[in-house]
Amino acid sequence: MDDLSSFCCLNPVCSDLGKRGHGNLTVTARYGPDKTRRMLRCRTCTARFSERKGTPLFDARLPPDKATAVLAHVAEGVGTRKTARLTGVHTDTVTRYTRLAGDHAEAVHDEVVAFSPHDR
Ligand SMILES: [Zn+2]
């Protein structure tokens, strides 16, 4: 059984938009290398979308372990050119993934901080 509790419908006109663990999502297909990625469907609005939509890995061409290695180097403060050499990817690729991850991290930060309890 797939755990879909961390996912939500991403359709802007769906009444269940953004409701995690709401029970409206099902897995309709698996795709990608070794069929490891799930295609999700919302029962409420019938929209279908990749489980990777809205993440830095959506439509990524690098294998997940390679993308993770690139971002781990950058997160540790390794420069773009060094990261490219150490992971075997082009410097433009390092820059693109860094931007995607940065935008995603900013969005996650804004969402999580918005629901944090106030200090007393
Ligand atoms: Zn929906």
Brief digest:
The chain has 120 residues and is of the alpha+beta class.
Topology:
Layout: E1 25-31, E2 37-42, E3 48-50, H1 64-75, H2 80-87, H3 91-114
Antiparallel strand pairs: 1-2, 2-3
The protein binds zinc ion.
Cofactors and ligands: zinc ion
Secondary-structure element pattern, one letter each: EEEHHH
Mean pLDDT: 90
Strand proportion, as a percent range, falls in: 5-15%
Total domains: 2
What is the spatial order of strands in the main beta sheet? 1-2-3
In angstroms, what separates the terminal alpha carbons? 41 Å
> Low-confidence segments, ≥5 residues, pLDDT <50?
none
Structural class: alpha+beta
Q: Largest sheet, if any?
A: 3 strands, antiparallel
Alpha-carbon Rg, integer: 17 Å
The coarse overall form would be: globular
Could you characterize the architecture of this molecule?
This protein has 120 residues and is of the alpha+beta class. It has two domains: 1-53; 64-114. The protein contains three helices and three strands. A three-stranded antiparallel sheet has the order 1-2-3, with no helix packed on it. The longest helix has 24 residues, at 91-114. It is globular and about 45 Å long. The chain binds zinc ion. Zinc ion binds at residues 9, 11, 14, 16, 42, 44-45, 47. Residues 9, 11, 14, 16, 42, 44-45, 47 line the site of zinc ion (ZN).
